[in-house]
Structure formats: structure tokens, C-alpha cells
RING-type E3 ubiquitin transferase
Amino acid sequence: MDLEIAMVLISNTLSCVFIALQIFHVKRNPETLSCISLVMLVILSLGHMIPLVLNFEALFLRNRGKQALMLNTGGWIEANEVTIRIVTMVAFLLQIRLLQLVWTSKTSEGIENGSWVGEKKAAFVSFLLYILGGLGALLLNWIRKYSLWGGLWSYGGLVLDGFLVPQILLNIFRGSAEKALSHTFYIGTSAIRVVPHAYDQYRAHNYPTFHVNGTYYYADHNADFYSTAWDVVIPLGVIALAVIVFLQQRRGGRWIVPQRFRELQLYEKVPTINNE
């Protein structure tokens, strides 16, 4: 339990550091603000906000078993939970600040600007993927007779694991090679999403029955997909997304697109000359 609480605190503290470094990055390079995906920032903001809401709700709905646990441990768990809430709140406020900076930059350029066109296309494709994925998760849980709400909750964690998807799509539609995201931000945040799956396998082999009232403090099985297979597939997917963003920021947003489509896009951008 001590280890899991410490890992939650470390994870949330690192989130604050990575977001602060990204804010510092866009302050030094304001031209990159319009190249950052709003959908990605909204997803990350919700990832901090929802645990806060649930934790505050737990203050009023704490069950007797948890109360007894607090008494038996001298209240240190409750003190640590308060610390976790404070750090999570700081991360949420920093994320909102970054979102506000990007929103202000995009709106100041005008709604018909190329950054908004690319943002709309990326948002449409992202939401389409999320809806299809959500329906798939519901169908799978219905077939297995699992809780539909639990399936959606875990799917939300999967969406958070793939937080870079909207940014990758925006880079493709814009064809941008701007270093919109600092390396520490997207690599660090990706690492935060990967480590719980590695820890889940460690916990399964060393502490197979360790939990408090059926829940975990870190790598909660209700907040993401966890199993031997998922703990391999999800980290590989997160790493792949980070590599794609790294290469997009070096070679251009459309390097992942087949060559003939890139040539077609360049042809469409060539201005026509009127001989009259």
C-alpha cells in the first residue's frame, strides 16, 4: 500500500513538472501554440479532473470498511489521499492553463485559419475513432456479461493512454513539422501511462492478492484495461505513438502518409498562374 500511494504521488508530481515544462516551451516558442491539438489537451484535462471529482465524492460516501482502515492506520492513508488530491489539483490547473493558452492562440488567428481547419478534421476523426471504440467496448462487455459502465470506464483509460492520437492526426492534416510538444512533455506523459502496466505485472507476480477493499491505489483495474495481454499491447502502442510524434516533429506531419498522397497534397498547394 505504501508503495502504491508513493507511486501515485510521484506520478502526479511528474505530471505537474511535465506540464509546466510544456507551458515554458510554448512561452519561448509562441508560434507552436496553434500546432497543438485542443482535443489532446481536453483528454488530458479530463484525466486529471475525473479522479478529483471521484475523490471529493468519496469524502462524503466513504464506507465503514474504509473508515475502519483509516482508524487502524492512524489516519496516515487519509493524509496521503489529501496530498494526492492537492497534487492532482495542481496538475489539473496547469493543464487548464495550457489549454487556455492554446485556445487563445487559435481563436486570435480566426476561425477560418488553417489551424482551425486542421483542428476540426483531427477532432472529427478522433471522435469517430472514440465512438467506434466505445461501441466495441460496450459490445465486448455485453457479450461477456460484464458491467457496461465498468467497460466504458476502462475504455476511458485506454483513450487517455492514446492521448497523442489527436496530435498525430492534427500534424497529418496540417503537414506541420513544428516542434509543438516538448520532448519532456509527450515522452514523460507517455511514460506515466506505461509504468502502471509494468507495475501491474510486477504486482500480479509478487502480490497476487494485495488490495484494499477490492481496489488498488495505483494501476486500478477499473480505470484502464489490465491483463497479461493488455499490459504488453498498451505500452507498445503508447511507445509507438510517441515515436510517431517524434518523427513528425523532425520530418513533417505527413511522413507517415504514403508518398503518393503527400505528392498529391503538394500538387494541390501549387498556385495556378492565369495566362490572361
